[in-house]
Amino acid sequence: MLVNSPEGSLQGKKQFVFRRFFAPKSGPLSGKPGVRRLKTYSAQSGYVYQYFYEGHRPFRSGAESGTEFVFSLSADRKNWSPAPVLVSDAALASWEQAHQRDLSSSERYAIAKMALFQAFDERAAPEQMKQEIRVRHADVEAIVETLGL
């Protein structure tokens, strides 16, 4: 009951409501597969993750823009959370300019998926997978080399 609650908790609830109300809205996902396929990845961290690809959408964060690839993942098959992979347009443009060719949409998806796998391997616990994954120029170079593109 709010009447008996301390002022700090009421203030926190007000901030939460306003933050949620005024937060920038994400656009709808596109490229969502007709049938979601559950996939599994055994990470070097020792966890086994299950994940679905949900789709992608453009993102803008300050001066940075690109494509956000959204995956749903679970480490225990009970609790699912989104795992956004942000692939910067600047990182892709830098690679494309250096190699004199454009990356296809399938290759861009492969870069995002490999970045997700890298996060599975590097992040010590599933709770850390709730943080967004950002793909930078050096990441694009390494992933493309690994894929042999």
Overview of the molecule:
The chain is α+β, with helices and mostly antiparallel strands. It has one domain (36-147). 38% of the residues lie in helices and 27% in strands. A 5-stranded mixed beta sheet has the order 1-2-3-4-5. Strand 2 and strand 3 (64-74) form a beta hairpin. Helix 2 crosses helix 4 (137-147) and helix 3 packs across helix 4. The longest helix has 18 residues, at 105-122.
Mean pLDDT: 81
Total number of domains: 1
Task: Please list the strands of the largest sheet in the order they lie side by side.
Answer: 1-2-3-4-5
- Order of helices and strands, N to C? HEEEEHHEH
Poorly predicted regions are 1-6, 16-24
- The total count of helices amounts to 4
Specify the helix fraction band: 25-40%
Sheet with the most strands, sense and barrel status: 5 strands, mixed
The SS-based structural class is alpha+beta
Distance between the termini: 60 Å
Strand content: 25-35%
Q: How would you briefly describe this protein structure?
A:
By secondary structure, this protein is an alpha+beta fold. It is built from four helices and five strands.
